[in-house]
Write a structure and sequence with these properties.
By secondary structure, this protein is of the alpha/beta class. Helix content is 54%, strand content 15%. It has one domain: 2-enoyl-CoA Hydratase, Chain A, domain 1, CATH 3.90.226.10. The chain has a six-stranded mixed β-sheet, with helices on both faces. A three-stranded mixed β-sheet has the order 5-7-8. The longest helix has 22 residues, at 244-265. The protein starts with 5 loop residues before the first strand and ends with a helix.
Length: 266
Amino acid sequence: MEYSEISYEVIGEVARIYHNRPTQANAESEHLLAELDHALERAKRDDDIRVVIIGATGKHFSAGHDLMDGMEKRGNFTPEQHWLWESEHYLGNALRIWDFPKPTIAQVQGACIAGGFMVANMCDMVVAADDAFFSDPVCHSLAAASVEALVHPWVMGLRKAKEFLFTGQRVSAAEAKEWGMVNHVVPRAEMEDFTLQLANRIAAAPPIGIRMLKRSLNRSADIMGFRNSLMAHFDTHILSTSTREHLDLAAAGMRASMEAAKKAQS
């Protein structure tokens, strides 16, 4: 498969899968996420690949889901259609990263917002550049109950997740490391080399042993309620995107975006 919105590179026993829409701040279109799914399945079936890095080209990891793409393709969906589509795609994309049998590392620079936050934090580990920041402002901007997969309390703790989501604030890479969400913060110029070294160290472990270990660790989280909590939140998220409050805010945001586009073209 030829990819147009991601890149796929094999370096020894490591696959690097990058968002590759830098001029759109790596906003995650439906097509990009489909390519990401395909690339993960490709790496899963390749016995020579032992670790996957999910990163991005350009200045930012991801500005989140591509809302313009979604409005064009699914703007007239009913709540039922949204529930079915997002079950397979946004929530499904996230869970396929979580369930990926080999270790995964998110490599984050610049903005990691909303849908991008979700993708990065479904990985097993996060390496952040010193210029990275994390944000999920969708309650403030869209009156929606966060993104489709509420991984936040699991990666930063309940109280910090409440503060993060209730305020819509940005969290720096250093703060995210302090909260326990990020494993390492490194200078931007060193990020790719550092992450690859970490991946190679993990790849040196016996491949079946580490797959069994990951399965056991993920099962521990599921026993504590991880998967059930994500599934419970998802239905709440879909309901929140059907309210009049959300529809009014979304319409106002689209009008503002169109006006900005017109001004840029004039």
